[in-house]
Design goal:
heterotrimer, A mainly beta, B alpha/beta, C alpha+beta, B: 8-stranded mixed beta sheet, 3-stranded antiparallel beta sheet, 15 strands, 18% strand, C: alpha+beta, 5-stranded antiparallel beta sheet, 18 strands, 31% helix
């Protein structure tokens, strides 16, 4: 899973981590946690469906599918031919 | 849970609370409410998981006079492999899931039907649905609705509390793949678009926002198409499973407005509680009969009450095996819980629950089915 | 009327509690951090003994005078100046100047928020911004005093001290004294996860380093996430050990086979001690992290005073959103 943002093993090859790029002074000033930062490809932004919702006074109201089918009009599951 | 297939000393097998066994007439299922799958199991295993829950493996083997020791070991390996449970040192720390269902919304979901003669006051309908807290809408267009009109309808639903719109559209050449994609990006409340009466069956790759869209050959030209029962419409999640304990998961807190504007429990039903042009939705909802069908759960329905899918199936109260009996099975359901078979081959194919991704299909030991239950 | 302090984006929990307040017949007003960061029109005047505060949003003056209780849910995630280009000439970018400008504006904005919070000082609150910034080491100290099992902990600048600690406890972990953080750098992100230090890693450290936090590595059976709400604990167990990806930190989770998250029953004495700790910290809400070890210890790790409760409420079906709404209504009834 090379694109898993949480995989610590996919440091870009030949590219030192953040700690290695700190100045000698910087290395002295940061706590030990900085020696083992996990570097990975920045996760592709999750594309949330954000809308405005006036009743909630929200500009980034997150939309998501309902948890169950509302009606059931098709005799076969969706996309069966393609999956 | 970890790598040991055999029970460590002093531990008993415990199902995760979100994995709930449900017994059917011929077989049972484990409903995995967290990972959203339904796994068939033999009734013998159901018995082990319920009647003998909390017993050490040795004790369980003893109960069956050591006739099925190998099968019982296989069962536990199977359950561990699917991560349905774990070897637990402290079972009393792991209570069952509370299956109380409650929701703050007076109406959780709504259907709005549209055909070429429809004359809805969309602003009024959406604003009244919003006052009832409605979060999910299905907009069903039985006949082609020109794109500008579709946009006008969807615009009326902006700014409210809706968090999901399922759009069912009738095919027209202007409904190109690009047109669907731009609809979904303009109206971000849209979760799913299905285009019926299309020249071909084609599911589009999901958009980056997770929205799904598909062209479907099937014709959906009236509410009479609704009420289909098959595994594609089963849902295995906590909220719906909990709701199913005491409510009808199709009709509970649903409100429908048919193509003529009649306010109903469901557009397939005859009874109207008034026309949305004249009657405010909350008045229709206040009618003493409006919620009468909401409490018919699957445990009250003939045949369904013996079906292992009863808490994941979303039922239908409009098309019944016996039109005179409100408690008869949905007429469009072809599953027979007494034989555990679907009537049509197509449906039989889909009944095998898809294994979790990255999970090699595990063999289901069936040997025990004969003797134990 | 309940004043909900929140933020304007991605707050489904705020919205669910609002729905419950509506369902239970309550009145409320949502004020987002962004309202004080440019979204709303603000007028505050002191004229002799007379003070008035007026906040108008969407063309409506918010009825702040009717507020009877306050819920501090969230506030500003990011202030607008923090991502803005403040200087006209990016070519002449001066890091020090940039940094000083931002620091000043952030300080200014904080003080404005503090002033708003102070306006409601006399009312009952649920969570308070002034108590939302707990200090991990202080909390651990108090937890130990409350009788909770806590991990052996060392904060030091000396490798020799760390070596003695490691000699006693074997592998140790290191984590920030403050909060875990991440650094975005274009294509790459640098994450700060709880990390195990073996003896080789310890030996490779310089003799003296910046003060760092070390703890014994606990052999985890499962994690516990407890949402504490006004005297009640709502615990959930998280089974993350099966998946090597999440062995040391469950935030490192796997989306394909999510960790098992199930309701849990704490030992009575643990519940009592957690309640004592929360009382000591003067916290009415909080998300508590504990860990169950393979040898049967129930070890307290930390508390997040405004922690998420949706992630406990959903998988365990605890209806915490409703419980929060009910508590707010009780506070509102007292505040008036």
């Amino acid at each position: 899973m090379a694109d898993d943002p949480t995989d610590p093993d996919d440091r870009p090859a030949g590219n030192a981590g953040l700690f290695e790029r700190l100045s000698p002074e910087g290395r002295r000033l940061v706590p030990v946690t900085f020696r083992s930062l996990h570097t990975s490809k920045t996760a592709e932004a999750t594309f949330l469906r954000l809308v405005e919702s006036r009743p909630y006074r929200a500009k980034g109201y997150a939309c998501s599918p309902f948890r169950k089918p509302i009606s059931k009009c098709f005799g076969t599951p969706a996309g069966e031919d393609d999956v | 849970m970890t790598s040991e297939p055999r029970a460590p000393a002093e531990r008993v097998f415990t199902l995760f609370a979100s994995c709930i066994p449900v017994r059917g007439a011929r077989r049972s299922v484990i409903c995995d409410l967290q990972r959203q799958s339904t796994q068939p199991i033999p009734n013998g295993l159901y018995e082990i998981l319920t009647m003998h829950a909390g017993k050490a493996v040795a004790e369980i083997k003893n109960v069956y006079d050591h006739q099925y020791d190998e099968e019982i070991d296989e069962y536990f390996e199977f359950l561990l492999g699917h991560e349905f449970g774990f070897w637990c040192a402290d079972p009393e720390r792991f209570p069952a899931l509370d299956l109380t269902w409650e929701a703050p919304e007076r109406i959780t979901n709504a259907i709005l039907d549209v055909d070429r003669h429809s004359d809805h006051d969309y602003e009024k309908i959406f604003s009244e649905l919003d006052d009832l807290g409605c979060k999910a809408l299905e907009l069903r267009c039985f006949e082609p609705v020109p794109l500008p009109e579709l946009r006008r309808i969807l615009s009326a639903a902006r700014h409210g509390r809706l968090r999901s719109i399922d759009l069912l559209a009738a095919y027209a050449p202007e409904l190109t793949q690009e047109a669907l994609e731009s609809l979904a990006s303009e109206y971000r409340r849209i979760s799913n678009i299905a285009v019926h009466s299309s020249p071909e069956d084609r599911a589009l790759p999901p958009y980056r926002t997770g929205v799904t869209a598909a062209y479907r050959r099937e014709v959906v030209d009236s509410p009479r198409c609704c009420g289909q029962i098959h595994p594609g419409y089963f849902v295995t999640n906590i909220e719906t499973f909990a709701e199913a304990q005491k409510h009808n998961t199709c009709l509970n807190r649903k409100l429908a407005i048919d193509a003529r504007g009649e306010i109903k429990n469901c557009p397939s039903m005859a009874r109207s509680f008034g026309n949305a042009r004249q009657v405010p939705l909350h008045s229709a909802l206040a009618h003493r009969d409006f919620a009468a069908l909401w409490a018919i759960n699957k445990d009250q329905i003939a045949i369904c009450k013996d079906c292992e899918f009863r808490y994941v199936c979303t039922d239908c109260r409009a098309y019944l095996a016996d039109a005179a009996d409100l408690y008869s099975k949905p007429s469009k359901c072809t599953y027979d819980p007494y034989t555990a078979e679907w009537q049509t081959p197509a449906e039989r194919q889909t009944q095998a629950a898809a294994p979790a991704p990255g999970d090699a299909a595990l063999p289901l030991p069936a040997g025990i089915l004969k003797g134990v239950s | 009327m309940i004043l909900i302090l929140s933020q304007s984006a991605m707050e489904p929990t705020t919205e669910e509690v609002m729905d419950w307040l509506t369902a239970l017949g309550g009145r409320f007003l949502r004020l987002n951090g962004e309202d004080l960061d440019g979204d709303a029109a603000l007028c505050f005047t002191i004229d002799g003994a007379e003070t008035t505060l007026e906040i108008a949003a969407d063309g409506v003056v918010l009825p702040l005078a009717e507020v009877g209780a306050v819920w501090f849910r969230r506030w500003l995630r990011e202030r607008r100046h923090e991502s803005a280009s403040l200087l006209e000439l990016p070519a002449a970018l001066d890091h020090k100047l940039y940094y000083d400008l931002r620091r000043n504006l952030t300080f200014e904005s904080r003080k404005l928020s503090d002033f708003l919070f102070a306006r409601f000082a006399g009312l009952p609150w649920l969570s308070h911004p002034h108590r939302s910034g707990t200090t991990k080491l202080d909390v651990l100290t108090r937890a130990a005093q409350a009788g909770l099992d806590t991990p052996a902990t060392l904060v030091t600048t000396e490798r020799a001290a760390l070596e003695r600690f490691a000699a006693r406890y074997g592998d140790v972990i290191t984590k920030p004294i403050g909060e875990v953080d991440l650094f975005l750098e274009g294509e790459r992100t640098h994450f700060m996860f709880t990390t195990v230090l073996g003896s080789a890693a310890v030996a490779a450290l310089p003799e003296r380093f910046a003060a760092s936090l070390f703890q014994e590595r606990l052999d985890k059976e499962y994690e516990l996430r407890v949402f504490y709400l006004a005297g009640e604990c709502h615990p959930m167990a998280i089974f993350s050990q099966a998946d090597p990806r999440t062995q040391n930190d469950f935030r490192n989770y796997n989306r394909v086979r999510p960790n098992r998250m199930v309701p849990y029953r704490l030992r009575t004495e643990t519940t009592e001690r957690l309640c004592r700790l929360m009382a000591d910290l003067e916290l009415e809400t909080g998300s508590l992290d504990l860990l169950q070890t393979r040898d049967g210890r129930e070890v307290f790790l930390e508390v997040n005073p405004v922690g998420q409760f949706g992630m406990v409420s959903g998988p365990c079906n605890y209806h915490l959103e409703k419980k929060v709404a009910e508590l707010l209504l009780r506070k509102d009834a007292h505040g008036r």
